[in-house]
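Q: Protein A?
A:
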Amino acid sequence: MTAALTGAAHRCLSRLGLFRRGLFRRGLVRHGAAGLAAAATAATAQFAIVLVVTRTLEPRAAGAFFTATTACLMLAGVVRLDTGNGLVHALAGSRTRPARNAGSPGSVRGAPAHRRMPPAASAGLLRGVLAGVPQPRRCVRGQSAGMVRGVLVPVAALACVVAAGVWLAAGPLAGLTGVPPGVWAVLAAALPFVVLSDVLVCATRGLGTMRPTLLISGAVQPLGQLALVTAAVLAGAPAAALAAAWALPSVACAVLAAVRLRGLGPYDVGDVRAFWRRTAPRSVAAAVQSVFQRLDVVVVALLAGPAAAAVYTAATRFKVVGQLAGQGLAQAAQARLVRALAEGDLATAGRVYRTTTRWLVGLTWPLWLGYAALAPWALSLFGPAYAGGVAIALVLSATMMVATACGMVDVVLVAAGRTTASLANVSAAVAVTIALDVLLVPAYGALGAALGWSGGVLVKNLLPAVQVSRRYGLRPFGLGPVARTT
């Protein structure tokens, strides 16, 4: 009798496991499609902005615009202190924290998935399975206000301080970069809104909804920037007005995201001091990452002038497509990776990693191959002054194919809690990029910057790929986690 009940319980649990895996796949596909739709819209809008600016303005003015907006985004990435990802981790974790079994292996650094503690009986096994089902937490409004005071206010204050510094340094920055002082003043005023709009949207994603990401980050901001920049360019607006047209949608997005986040409350990030202790190492890594992603345009402007920066921006514009595709998938999978790795579920983490890698390769490799083959025609769209960027396009295509084959490996590393390793990897990539830029940009201009960027990207992706494979047995392709090396 007992054996029959035990067998029935195991069959029930097997069906429950299959049901949960089906829900996991459908949820990942649905959220992944939403993230990719937002990324595709943003990439298309950014490409269109570059096309409008390069076809309308002379290269020096176009390069000044690209340099200033790139510097603004780079500063915003530093000032955010990675609180967006920190909120995703904290809010997503808060949805499952009460449901965890305190006696189970709760860290990925513990035993692998196949060494989970077996239940003593079928009832215990059933409880163990059901314990992995996310349960909502009961929160109060005071906890929501605590998140605002303890997380959002410090970030907003830091953004205002940095914005004041940019405003005061507008004159010296104009002399170094060739960007008019009025442009720096406008972007300084917009910096806090650029910072907060991203952080607030990330918070909504941590609460389990992708709609604000899709509608605000994927539609309102990029399409608003395209419409306003196009109108400003066609109206012959001065450089400061053009910068304002680019920045205004961030103000609207910050307001919309704040309203939506308030509607999702109440919510809880736990102890604010603990939140900052967890986020502080990632803040440094995110700052370095932001510098790595956008430093190249600024370096070209500093060492070779705004006109060369315009050529480099146009030739590497397709790079944003690959970055945004990876960002869209990361937004969809990040919370799932955090929960899986926090519970020591390497099998689920491996499925997420491999699935997103296949999506990245399938979506971006045709683009890179096509761009390499059609580079002369594609660059001619920006105007005759940009025809010399074919070599840059070839370097870009080859590098991005290698990078996407590694998958979103740094996201996996950070989700596993290896923030120090992530920081070391990105720092090494920045060091390689700067060293190669200083050596190559004075002699080869924009092509030298592309080679420097390529060296940094290879370091940034290959180092964590080796680390994730050796420590956790996770690889971008294959059937599942492999045995870890000691």
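Q: Protein B?
A:
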Amino acid sequence: MNGETSHQEHIGPFRLLTRLGGGTGAVHRATGPDGRDVAIRLLPAGSGSGAAGSGPDIARMRGVLSPYVVDVLGGDPAADPPYLVSRLVPGRPLGDDVAERGPVAGAELRRVALGLAKALAAIHREGLVHGALGPGTVLIVDGSPVVVDFGLVPGAEAAGDVRAWAATVVFAATGDATADPAASAAVPGALRPLLLAASADDPAARPGAEELAAACAGLDLGPAVPPVPSSASTHAPPPVPQSAPPAGPSAGGPPVAATSPDPVPTVASASSEGSVAVLTEPGAETPAARPGPGADSGHHDLAATQGWARLLTATVVVIAVGVAVTAPVMGLVLSIAGVAVLRAAGESSARGRLSALGRTLLTLPYAAALMVAVPLVLVALSVVGGEIDALSACAFGAGAGAAVLWTGPGVRAPRALLERMFLPVARVPRRIAVAGVVLGALALFAVVAAMSLTPSFAPMYGLQSSLKGWIDQAEAALR
């Protein structure tokens, strides 16, 4: 952070608590308007909108949801200084982990390879590329990897991520990212062909991240093998290879501890220009805490929590569509307002909230097109055979429009924020049961009402009469 900002107490709406790192892309622990602690990473001066290709695409970064990828909460590349906000991750870099405890093997190596592949798949699905995957940008949390600092390298390509995946997995297995997977005895034979394919010189010949994840899921590397630290590690940790990103807040520097009377997280992610700030709680994991074969349960708990959050979110979308069919005017207004509020709530600046509103408005033409097309298709089908009420046809069109508002092309942020809101519920079985019963009952009622009740266009009763007349005329013309 430069001299102009070193005395700041706030960056955007966030109150700075502790400076955790210096150099390019200083890191700060901060607290948001809602009181939660976050990590603030300052971006290089001049970082612009990701849409222009000159800075991080925060909207897409926030849409990356995976237990293996850090949550990006927001940021403002156009602010002075520009910054990025991420959650705190209680883990330690893979480079430090291997240096202190030795390479991983067996089921734990499979967990690292599979988690990294799934992380890249989630990042690539949002149209992003990591660009700097390595031992310094992978945190180990309860034996599972969490990828950080993604989407920050201009011009990076997905095929490069795949090759970096291979180098990182080789590092986890051998302690050397430059080791030849074909020659190293530490690389399991079942994993070797996949690593060689991902390391191919021709980028077009490398598998995609989804293929990597599918292939890793079918691997059997045996039970977890307790790591044996090398003799050198008893005196000093071996250096992370130069090809891997450094694991401190500045290039070549070690993690910097916060000078605070209370325990404060330390920087745990690699630092590059504009890297995401991810922090580690002190004592989060000790050498004796390396999980054994039963550690898979932690990974499964994460995946199950994410799955429940997505299911509850899908139930909310079903309710919204059902309401739009039963009461088209009110339902559409509620869906538009809900989507806009959720998008805006995920932004940390006024400019970001205005951009969120603009993205919602851009979705309206898609919704309107479907609202017109669906009734016309239903009327055309009724001419061929069957019968449909004019108002019901319009109501189904309204339901299709509501569905587009929530799930249409490019619409991910509202559902992503809902999933994050449901995560605290999804972690507790009793809360899941209560939320599931309540939302499930509401969804069932919404579907039954949509299929059986006469739609009400209140308070726009004049529109109801006009729509009925237009649909009747269209049906008569087709007949």
